[in-house]
Design goal:
heterodimer, A: about 0% strand, B: about 300 residues, MetI-like fold
Chain lengths: ~300, ~300
């Protein structure tokens, strides 16, 4: 019996091995590369022989006006997205909840989830088709006798386009969790309210909304961990040098610094700055979620 | 459900249906717009005249694609990476999730591995160290990079693990009494009762592989190695980054591309997604709910 238990343990190790090898290769080894952020990294000399410069890369980074701009852009875009991606799906779920025709309800759900599954590469071609210089909106402006606008190349419009198109793509999918919570409400509550003469509005405010409270708190708190994630795929596929002042985010900046300008150390430092802050925020958000919504990840 | 039928309530119902129908149209518009552009004639599409219906119906763009070797090449690369990558990722995730679903007294090292996993989920070395690491494995320009560089998602492992934990212990215990070892239990008992979660993860992972463009962009050096999304990205969004660009130059650049032909390519790239969508739909709602299971 003891021998058996022993072999069971070994089987468990063996099962976990392929995944752990992958984690070591693609997740843990790259973490060693973080040292580049504290070096004047020279690919010819390698990680172990490049000159150690301590915090110089960080100091230099924060002296660049780009870095402050990029951090501000990231925060503004990400926070707008977090808030609207919570509110719009919430309102949508409440509206859908009021629909009595099951067939129509299912049909609406099927359609609104769809954009989530299209990549930003594909959505970008459509967004450019709509807001571009020769796009749908400009066609209408011209029809009405106006001058076509450069929406996609205008720094003042770019953030609104980013946030708006992100909500457009994701609101249906983000509503799933609310809709699931709504199916958990006891119909007897609505019946009782109705007998007591409550209007639909009163039922919604006093029964439907409170039942979503935990969900909203949970998603809001978990959103905290995404405060520096403004959406690389989206920005990368939509931006251009004319909108860097409002649309460039940490991730795209790191990409250009590192993989286009080959400033490995500076880019690694900027990336580490983001990873470290995100790490703290995620841990805090998990602790808060655990405290306020009994949420545990594992 | 009993509900009053006041006038206000009826007006609300009508307004509600109008709002929801508008949202439905907004979400279907990407598909419709792309289809319309792809079957419109080139000059109308380039001038931006196509809005809600095709102008000058023609299938010439689709005929042109038929002769485009690079397009089909990248389409084939995407299919390969999606099939191989999904199989690898799902298999490894299941294997990993099973021991992790055990209590620490059943699998001594469980918590250690769990903490490693969670740490890797919420912290990463960033783009540049990741890129240099993949480069150091000599994976640049290989299918291996497209398959392995982003294959394992810790969150998926945790989803599967949570599902495994919810399976009644009696099932396993009966098998242990019959002399089954861990491998037999996993493949004969656990996996067959976990079809919903495995289907969900399989679909999520395949969507990831199909839609992923960035690894294709940075890890492939030549366009004949690009997966489809990278190919499309390069074809449509070809504005040189980092250069100074004036608004006049931007206008000129945006008039260069063949919008109709691009639309046809984008539409073809959407087709596999549209084919699997009805199947995903059945599962992803369950998938998200498993994700919110409280451990």
């Amino acid at each position: 019996m003891k021998k058996k238990a022993h072999s069971t343990q070994w089987s468990y190790y063996l099962m976990i091995l392929p995944g752990m090898i992958w984690m070591a290769m693609f997740s843990i080894v790259p973490m060693a590369g973080i040292t580049m952020a504290f070096e004047d990294f020279n690919p010819g000399k390698g990680l172990f022989h490049s000159a150690w410069v301590g915090m110089e890369n960080f100091e230099y980074m924060f002296q660049l006006s780009d870095s402050r701009q990029v951090i501000a852009n990231t925060l503004i875009i990400a926070v707008s997205k977090i808030i609207l991606n919570l509110l719009v799906p919430l309102v949508f779920a409440l509206l859908l909840n009021e629909v009595r025709n099951i067939g129509f309800k299912k049909f609406v759900q099927t359609c609104v989830y769809l954009p989530h599954f299209l990549s930003w590469v594909i959505m970008a071609t459509i967004v450019i088709g709509i807001f571009g210089y020769n796009g749908v909106i400009n066609t209408f402006i011209k029809m009405l006798g106006g001058q076509p606008q450069l929406f996609m190349a205008n720094a003042d419009d770019f953030r609104q386009i980013l946030v708006g198109t992100d909500v457009w793509k994701e609101f249906g999918y983000n509503a799933i969790i609310f809709l699931a919570a709504l199916t958990g409400i006891d119909p007897a509550l609505y019946e009782a309210a109705s007998i007591d003469g409550a209007s639909r509005w009163q039922s919604m405010v006093h029964i439907t909304l409170p039942s979503l409270k935990t969900c909203v708190v949970l998603l809001g708190v978990l959103g905290l961990g995404n405060i520096l994630n403004a959406g690389f795929d989206q920005v990368y596929n939509l931006y251009n040098p004319l909108v860097y002042s409002t649309g460039d985010i940490i991730d795209t900046w790191v990409y250009r610094l590192g993989l286009q300008d080959l400033q490995y150390s500076l880019a690694t430092a900027a990336g580490l700055f983001k990873s470290a802050i995100s790490f703290v925020l995620i841990v805090v958000s998990y602790l808060l979620a655990n405290k306020f919504a009994d949420y545990t990840v594992f | 459900m009993i509900r009053s039928k006041t006038i206000g309530s009826r007006i609300f119902d009508v307004v509600n249906v109008v709002i929801l129908t508008t949202l439905v149209l907004l979400c279907l518009y990407p598909l419709w717009y792309t289809l319309c552009v792809s079957v419109s004639n080139k000059s109308a599409a380039n001038a931006g005249l196509v809005t809600f219906y095709p102008i000058g119906f023609t299938t010439i763009s689709y005929q042109q694609i038929m002769g485009d070797k690079l397009f089909f090449n990248s389409f084939w690369i995407s299919i390969q990476r999606t099939v191989i990558g999904t199989a690898f990722s799902v298999f490894v995730s299941i294997l990993m999730a099973y021991p992790l679903s055990k209590r620490p007294d059943e699998f001594a090292a469980r918590n250690v591995f769990m903490w490693i996993l969670v740490f890797c989920m919420i912290f990463n070395g960033g783009m540049i160290p990741w890129y240099l690491t993949v480069q150091s494995y000599h994976m640049i320009n290989t299918m291996a990079a497209l398959v392995f560089a982003g294959s394992l998602n810790v969150f998926n492992v945790i989803l599967i693990m949570n599902f495994f934990r919810g399976i009644p212990k009696d099932l396993e215990e009966a098998a242990v009494v019959d002399g089954a070892g861990p491998w037999k239990i996993l493949f004969r008992i656990i996996i067959p009762v976990s079809v919903p979660v495995i289907a969900t993860i399989t679909l999520f992972v395949s969507v990831y592989y199909w839609n992923e463009f960035f690894n294709g962009l940075v890890l492939m050096n030549t366009s004949d190695k690009y997966p489809l999304q990278t190919y499309i990205q390069q074809m449509v969004v070809n504005i040189p980054a980092g250069t100074t660009l004036t608004q006049e130059q931007y206008k000129k650049l945006s008039q260069l591309s063949n919008v109709s032909l691009n639309g046809a390519k984008v539409f073809i790239a959407m087709i596999p997604m549209l084919i699997v969508y009805p199947f995903i739909q059945k599962y992803f709602v369950t998938g998200i709910m498993i994700g919110s299971v409280k451990g």
